[in-house]
Amino acid sequence: SARSFKKYSNNIEVIGGDVDRRILFQEDRIQTFHVDQLDLNSLRNFLSIQKDMDLIIDDGLHTNHSNINFLATALDIHGNESGSWIIIEDIHIDQRIIWENIASYLSGKFKTWLIKTKISIMFVLLT
Prior knowledge:
Number of helices: 4
Order of helices and strands: HEEEHEHEHEE
Structural class: alpha/beta
Strand content: 25-35%
Strand order of the largest sheet: 4-5-7-6
Largest sheet: 4 strands, mixed
């Protein structure tokens, strides 16, 4: 997916992360780093690599714990940047009420959306 984003525009730089160090790579306009969504220090280090990010996508572990860690850390580091998108995808449909509450809580400060697909939910936030 990193290469797909890169091909979309010459203006895109992709920063990716994964817990599996064996799949990390570097190439023109793509850098990947080790990150563990269950380790807040690891997430903080990863999300601090780039100061301004236009789009931040969590396509990681797909558990509430990891997703909420990612969202909270991304908001802590990038929540004051105007116009940044944070997306948590592939949320299990059974977790909808949790994410409705999160969206409701955050909607006072940010624009939030829950997008239902056939098999999952996507949480979208605009800073």
